[in-house]
Amino acid sequence: MIELRNVSKIYPGLPPVEALKEVSLHIEKGEIFGVVGVSGAGKSSLIRSVNLLEKPTTGEVIVDGVSLASLSPEGLRDARRKIGMIFQQFNLLESKTVFHNVALPLYLSGKKKKDVEEKVMELLTFVGLADRAEHYPGQLSGGQKQRVGIARALATDPHILLCDEATSALDPDTTKSVLDLLQRINTDYGITILLITHEMDVVRNLCHQVAVLDQGSIVEQGTVYDVFTNPKSQTAQRFVRTIFQQELPKSIQNSLKEQDHVLRVVFTGENANQPLIAETIKKFQVNINILQGNITELQGKPFGDLLISIHGSTKEIAEVIHYLQEKQVSVEEVKSLGF
Amino acid sequence: MAFDWAVFWPQLIDGILATLIMVIVSLAFSVLIGFPLGVVLVVTRPGHILENRIVYAILSTIINIFRSVPFIILLVAIIPFTRLVTGSSIGTAAAIVPLIFYAAPYVGRLVENSLLEVEPGVVEAAQAMGATPWQIIWRFLLPEALSSLFLAATIATIGLIGASAMAGAVGGGGLGDLAITYGYNQFEVRVIVITVVLLIIFVQLVQSLGNYLAQVVRRK
Ligand SMILES: Nc1ncnc2c1ncn2[C@@H]1O[C@H](COP(=O)(O)OP(=O)(O)O)[C@@H](O)[C@H]1O
Ligand SMILES: [Mg+2]
């Protein structure tokens, strides 16, 4: 559906900025694909290359089997009508009503007035703003503005929706409701969604697949479940920790004794439901203290991430680690607690 | 020689009419020329929808040249051209030509500024939905800049009222001409006061109208 082949983007200047380095991505039809990265990682450059708002310096962008760079200006405009886009700052026309904003893409393609009216009201109803049709964006909240942005992006019946930090300007509650709306767009209309964000929570709540972008390169990619439960790159690990592991409170760090060993224990799938910690304590007669824990669900599968301290001899601890690993639990000794 | 009010009043009416004609006609032509100039200046900027360094540099330079010539010099410098167009170098019609030369580049810059105030994200959204450059200009840039454009027009009009009074000094007719003929040459202070008060009223009216229109279309 969307394919990026070795896409590089260099912004000329002194010095030139290499925003994307040989990025390759494959996004399947119907998928919700998230790209996560810190500010400046190249996320906007990446998403903007998908509808050629930004021309890649090298590499190819293929959407629905067509290489966008090969199209005429006219052809590119037609292709863009099938790729909706929403923005962090909404980018609505402040001088026009909600109705007019949503109708604009339809006016552009010369639709009849009556058809436009029907379509716009249908879209506004879908995003829950039918009663705001005659309001101006200045009279709406951030969440409502983004709903208008979404309705506008859907007006031309796109196959793809690009979301550039669509919830980054919104508070958590509003973010949740906009994410629910995006979810519905995906399930009800089968629209493929590519979103970029610096918030791991957005990826966790919405995405099927995720790619981690770091300084213009994709350092990790996979299903949300795999990347969250077993992040391999340092960048991915840091992102996963932003939601699953906070730094241990100082008081807890200080209460740890010299001979305490701290382990990170990650349960996935089946074993997340088993009382493994309790069994371990019984079996080995060691003291286990749960310092921090997070048991949650990812894409409908349970997942637990615990930080425990064990008091015992080196031999006992080695046995415990061995036992847990036998149960298909990932165990890792944590050396420094400062993360 | 005593001041003859009976002669003066009809001349004042003529002066008002001449000023109005000079301002309105030169404003109309200046907008006709300056508006497209301003639009082209914006869309040919680096990174904009019709980026073209050469067109931008040429237009920008020409505008700067005209803008750096003081009006009173411009008035004299283009007399040959004025004569060619209007058949004369004095009179109201002849004053309109230098006024256009003066105001059109100015309007160009004002329009450029107004359009630059539009959020770049709006243009980006327009491109993302497949709008043509023409559609981006008419359906996105101009409506979003409308309020600011009304204020720009106000500034241009007031500038033209001032300049038209100066054009009067070289025989262009209008209120400036009256002020010079009676007030300066014949030391008739009352005429100066009357013309200045009238000019102030014009400026106030234009400013209020401009503010009102800008307010009506602003939706923020
Ligand atoms: N138009 C531009 N000109 C020059 N440098 C740019 C431009 N756009 C982005 N950059 C640079 O490219 C890098 C990646 O930017 P961006 O894609 O916006 O990252 P992100 O969206 O992840 O914050 C940054 O270093 C940024 O400063
Ligand atoms: Mg960005």
From TrEMBL, chain A:
The keyword tRNA-binding does not apply. GO terms for biological process: amino acid transport. Residues 2-240 form the ABC transporter domain. It comes from the Bacteria. Gene3D superfamilies: 3.30.70.260, P-loop containing nucleotide triphosphate hydrolases. Keywords: Amino-acid transport, ATP-binding, Cell membrane, Membrane, Nucleotide-binding, Translocase, Transport. GO terms for cellular component: plasma membrane. GO terms for molecular function: ATP binding; ATP hydrolysis activity. InterPro entries: AAA+_ATPase, ABC_transporter-like_ATP-bd, ABC_transporter-like_CS, ACT-like_dom_sf, MetN_ABC, MetN_ABC_transporter-like, NIL_domain, P-loop_NTPase. Belongs to the ABC transporter superfamily. This is ATP-binding cassette domain-containing protein. It comes from Shimazuella alba.
From TrEMBL, chain B:
Pfam families: BPD_transp_1 (PF00528). One of its GO terms (cellular component) is plasma membrane. The keyword Transmembrane applies. It is a multi-pass membrane protein. Keywords: Cell membrane, Membrane, Transmembrane, Transmembrane helix, Transport. The chain crosses the membrane at residues 20-43, 55-79, 85-104, 149-171, 191-214. One of its GO terms (biological process) is D-methionine transmembrane transport. The keyword Thylakoid does not apply. Residues 16-207 form the ABC transmembrane type-1 domain. Its main location: membrane. Coiled coil: none annotated. CDD domains: TM_PBP2. Belongs to the binding-protein-dependent transport system permease family. CysTW subfamily. PANTHER family: ABC TRANSPORTER PERMEASE, TRANSPORTER, PERMEASE PROTEIN, PUTATIVE-RELATED. This is Methionine ABC transporter permease MetI. The gene is metI.
